[in-house]
């Protein structure tokens, strides 16, 4: 059985992470990938906000009123989250 480890590489700007696959007989590393901090990642339609702020809204407030127009807002947050993960 293999284990995946996501490891932060200290001292990098922007922050970088690497994925390591560990198995009983070896370990393989993917090249390090830079990740933009979520507090600087934009969300479409929310010009004065960022992914952290909008993700907080999505997780804490959206279900209180999951109807239009907030469903459009939620779709923008999910799209930004997907784009941030690429």
Q: Give the mean pLDDT.
A: 95
Helix-strand category: alpha+beta
Describe the largest sheet: 4 strands, antiparallel
Counting structural domains, the number is 2
- Please provide the count of β strands: 4
Give the N-to-C terminal Cα separation: 26 Å
What would you call the shape?
Answer: elongated
Which segments are poorly predicted (pLDDT under 50) over 5 or more consecutive residues? none
Number of helices: 2
Q: What is the H/E string?
A: EEEEHH
Taken as a percent bin, the fraction of beta residues is 15-25%
The oligomeric state of the chains shown is: single chain
Query: What would you report as the Rg, rounded to the nearest angstrom?
Result: 17 Å
Question: In percent, how helical is the residue content?
Answer: 25-40%
